[in-house]
Design brief:
Keywords: Hydrolase. There is one protein chain. The chain is an alpha/beta fold. The protein has helices at 10-23, 43-49, 53-59, 64-73, 78-96, 104-121, 163-170, 213-220, 237-243, and strands at 99-102, 132-136, 174-179, 191-192, 196-197, 199-200, 203-207, 227-228. The strands form 3 sheets. The protein has a 4-stranded mixed sheet with strand order 1-3-2-8, sandwiched between helices. The chain has a two-stranded antiparallel sheet with strand order 4-5. It has a two-stranded antiparallel sheet with strand order 6-7.
C-alpha cells in the first residue's frame, strides 16, 4: 500500500502567491472596484485622485536632490516619505501589476531607525539617507523571494541581502518592494505566470517593455523616485523609452551583479 500526495499545481501556487501579495497591501490603500482599462486607460489621474495633497507633493517631486536635502536636514522624515511612496506604489500596482514582493512594514521600521539615527547623531547614514528605492525582482533582499518570474522559486525567502541590496542599505536607502519582470528576464516585455502582465501606466492597454518593465512602470507612475534594474540588451533602455523616463545602463562590471538564485 502506498500513500500518494498531491502537490499544488503551478496555477494554485500562482493564485496563492498573488493572494499573499494582495494581503500585504493595507486595506485603506486597496482600490475597489479597480477601473477597467477601457474606462481609465491612464493610471495617473486615478492615482492622483486617491492621494492627499502632501502625498502628491512628495511623490511628484522629480528632483531627488530636493528630497535628499530635506531628509538630511530633518525637515522631512524618512517615515513620511516612505509611506507616501509605498501608498502610491500599492495603488499603482493594483492598476498595472508592476510589483512582485511587498515589504512595507519592514521598510517603515528601517525608516524609523534612520530617522532616529539622524535625530540622535545629527548625521546621515549615507548619501541616500532615508530615500525609498525600488529594486527589480532579480536582486536578493532578506526575508522575501527572488523568484525571477518562476513559480518553482516562490515561497523560498532569501536568508540575507546580497550585494546590491547591501550596498543600497549602506548608502542609507530604504528598500520597500521589488518589481515585475519576465520569466528569466529573457524578453523585452514584463510578463510571467506568477504575477501576470505588467502594463504601461500611461496606457494600460500597452506594455511597458522589459525586462525591467516593473521599474519603468513604477517610476513613471511616481510610485518610486529611484528604481534599480538591469540591462544587457536593452532591459533598462526599452522600459525607459516606453515610459518616458531616463535610464542609466552602466558598462558591464561597473556595478556588482550577484543574483539570489
Amino acid at each position: 500500500m502506498t500513500i500518494t500526495t498531491t502537490s499544488p499545481s503551478y496555477l494554485d501556487r500562482c493564485t496563492q502567491k498573488r493572494a499573499d501579495q494582495y494581503a500585504l497591501i493595507p486595506p485603506e490603500w486597496r482600490i475597489d472596484p479597480i477601473p477597467s482599462v477601457e474606462s481609465k486607460p491612464n493610471a495617473l489621474p486615478v492615482l492622483r485622485s486617491l492621494l492627499t495633497s502632501q502625498e502628491l507633493s512628495l511623490t511628484e517631486e522629480t528632483d531627488i536632490g530636493v528630497l535628499l536635502r530635506r531628509l538630511a536636514s530633518g525637515e522631512l522624515s524618512s517615515v513620511e516619505l516612505t509611506r507616501a511612496f509605498a501608498k502610491r506604489a500599492a495603488l499603482a500596482h493594483q492598476l498595472t501589476t508592476c510589483c512582485t514582493e511587498i515589504f512595507f512594514e519592514e521598510a517603515f521600521a528601517a525608516a524609523r531607525e534612520l530617522d532616529s539615527h539622524l535625530a540622535t547623531t545629527g548625521t546621515t547614514v549615507g548619501p541616500l539617507h532615508g530615500l525609498p528605492v525600488s529594486i527589480k525582482d532579480l536582486f536578493s533582499v532578506k526575508g522575501v523571494d527572488t523568484s525571477i518570474g518562476w513559480v518553482g522559486l516562490t515561497n523560498n525567502p532569501e536568508q540575507a541581502d546580497k550585494s546590491v541590496a547591501r550596498t543600497l542599505r549602506r548608502l542609507g536607502a530604504v528598500l520597500y518592494l521589488k518589481t515585475n519582470l519576465p520569466q528569466s528576464m529573457m524578453m523585452s516585455d514584463s510578463y510571467n505566470h506568477v504575477f501576470g502582465q505588467c502594463v504601461n501606466p500611461f496606457n494600460r492597454a500597452l506594455i511597458s517593455g522589459g525586462s525591467s518593465g516593473g521599474e519603468g512602470t513604477l517610476v513613471a507612475a511616481r510610485g518610486s523616485v529611484l528604481g534599480i534594474g538591469t540591462d544587457l540588451g536593452g532591459s533598462i533602455r526599452i522600459p525607459a523609452a516606453l515610459c518616458g523616463l531616463y535610464g542609466l545602463s552602466p558598462s558591464p562590471g561597473r556595478h556588482p551583479y550577484e543574483r539570489g538564485k
